[in-house]
Amino acid sequence: MDILYTVDEKYLQGIEELEYGELPKALHIFNEIINIDPEYARAHYQLGCFYYYQFKNYQTAGYYFKKCIELEAEFPDVYPHYLDLLITLKMYKSVELMAEKALAVPGVCKAEIHGRLGQNAEIQQNFVVAKAQYKLAVLAAASDTDHSLFKDHLKRVNDKLHTNKSMVYAYQS
Question: What DSSP designation does 167 have?
């Protein structure tokens, strides 16, 4: 009976299993899809998420995220997760290159991408760049929750900038 399913139907079945918390079944379905159609980018994306979030196998997750982007560069969902992976792996230059590519893709949440760029700069203690990226994220945020989150990031970076300022003592008599 499984033969009658199209790849898209199988994909939706896998998503449904994820929503019900049936991770093993979903993993099996996404692997099945890739066996049937190795060019199905969204299955690669889902497997990338599995290996990144569930198994903490970063090398395999990176393979699947890259494969998804190679097959369907216009798929917006993959970019925030791939950027998270690159930040986790401390691949800072790759983060910037991938974010630039992501910002050109229609449907990508620009606030999320600028937020990731801000996080990347903050980790490297480049607070001026982090502040600029978080400002762009605030401007691009479409929800109150995201707006508040990026404002909090901006406040934290401002505090760090003021911490780095040198103290000037004035002698008074």
Answer: P
